[in-house]
Automatic annotation (TrEMBL):
Residues 97-109 have a biased composition (Polar residues). Keywords: Metal-binding. Pfam families: Cupin_2. Residues 92-111 are annotated as: Disordered. This is Cupin domain-containing protein. GO terms for molecular function: metal ion binding. Residues 41-106 form the Cupin type-2 domain. The keyword Chaperone does not apply.
């Protein structure tokens, strides 16, 4: 058996993304690649997006659970506004871009869950795929 109590405030920046992201799953010893789950906390100031540009995943399901503020998620069909204590599930093959709009009043804090944790992101170009 194994248990891992992690405080995201104790973690360093996870990678070289231009936004504040902490990987809880890596801190718990789960590999970034080919593990059952990836779990990260994002803090997005107004005007920031969650590291990846407009993209989709071949295999991974993504879930965004908002802890504070509101997360906007652009898709080819509409823009979802995910409020505090709401979750948005994104199925594999579904293009999206998560961000905090420039005109937002507050920072957005969101938990991003990816299962399985695989690097299968594909860039989505609305102008050519729409």
């Amino acid at each position: 058996m194994g248990y891992h109590l992690i405080d995201p405030d104790d973690l360093d920046q996870w990678d070289d993304r231009g936004t504040d992201v902490r990987s809880l799953s890596v801190a718990a010893g789960y590999d970034y690649q080919n593990s059952k789950i990836g779990l990260r906390v994002y803090e997005l100031s107004p005007g920031e997006q969650s590291g990846l540009r407009y993209h989709s995943h071949d295999e991974q399901v993504e879930v965004f659970y908002v802890l504070q503020g509101a997360l906007h998620v652009e898709t080819p069909d509409e823009e979802y506004v995910v409020e505090t204590d709401q979750a948005l599930f994104v199925d594999p093959g579904s293009p999206q871009r998560a961000f905090n709009p420039t005109d937002a009043d507050t920072t957005t804090r969101a938990l991003a869950i990816g299962a399985p944790s695989v690097d299968d992101a594909r860039t989505y170009e609305p102008s050519t795929d729409a």
